[in-house]
Design goal:
The protein has a single domain (2-77), classed as Glutaredoxin (3-Layer(aba) Sandwich), CATH 3.40.30. The protein has three helices and four strands. The chain has helices at residues 12-27, 40-45, 69-77, and strands at 2-7, 32-37, 53-56, 59-63. The termini are close together.
Amino acid sequence: MKTFEVLGTGCKKCVNTAEKIEQVARELNEEVEVTKVTDPEKIMEYQVMSTPAVAVDGKVVHSGSIPEHDKIVGWLNA
């Protein structure tokens, strides 16, 4: 099971990002854990400058926008 962290302040884009990851995982029958990280200190530990950002299994793979469907599929299949 992959662990996703959505890094951001809890804005609408951050919420949408988390929901989209969960939706794509359901479509592919993949089990994932999605956590929303809103603590600024924790976000800075990842050296993220723009949100929403996504970390998969502790590694930042995306930042600055809601990821595209195909990008999420790629993370799930990696």
